[in-house]
Design brief:
196 residues; mainly beta; four-stranded antiparallel beta sheet; 40% strand
């Protein structure tokens, strides 16, 4: 059973999708890539090792919302936290994207990754409060961007003109092809309106 929301590379020859297929049943969703040139399917998520602060752990669970780079080599996905895997050079490792400022796991759920064409930048939404050195006390989802060429942590990007975190939910990020712009949905507080 495949998900209804696969993503496709810019060349249209490799796609990523979440679901349960073929030789990889498990009762939970996993993320796969499928090459339309070689007719091969690769399991991207599942019981694989992740590098988190220099410690290897096994990630097991349901995985969804794949985002794939233009060449099909980098796949970001959501498993409660956000991970990225280089399917060409790292067959056994998925790297934690939503890591805290000290290398620890995010202390809240992270999801909805979007990836740049070259796979070096990943945007995502998270309710975690330990991903950035900026104060984040709004108690809801914010949007973060991790640039693997710039450092090991994520930048909080759903901020106001003064650089402070937004006071309401920011979700559903979409990166530009080169990873220099990110669009997202912001749900402003509507104080003064009647409840219900």
């Amino acid at each position: 059973v495949m998900s209804p929301s696969p993503t496709l590379t810019s060349s249209g020859v490799i796609f990523a999708s979440a679901g349960e297929i073929g030789d990889y049943p498990g009762g939970t969703e996993n993320v796969y890539t499928r090459s339309l040139v070689t007719n091969t399917t690769t399991l991207v998520s599942g019981a694989r090792n992740t590098i988190s602060g220099g410690v290897s752990n096994v990630i097991i669970g349901s995985f969804r919302d794949p985002a794939i780079s233009a060449d099909g080599n980098m796949v970001a996905f959501d498993g409660g936290q956000v991970f990225v895997r280089d399917v060409r050079t790292s067959p056994n490792f998925a790297q934690l994207v939503s890591r805290g400022v000290n290398g620890q796991l995010g202390n809240g759920a992270s999801s909805r990754p979007s990836i740049s064409n070259d796979g070096s930048v990943v945007a995502y939404q998270s309710s975690a409060t330990n991903l950035s050195s900026l104060s984040d006390a709004n108690g809801t989802f914010d949007v973060f961007v991790r640039n693997f060429n710039a450092g090991p942590t994520s930048a909080l990007v759903s901020v106001d003109a003064a650089g402070a975190a937004g006071n309401a939910a920011s979700t559903l990020p979409v990166l530009s092809a080169d990873g220099t712009f990110v669009a997202f949905e912001y749900t402003p507080c509507r104080s003064g309106l009647p409840s219900g």
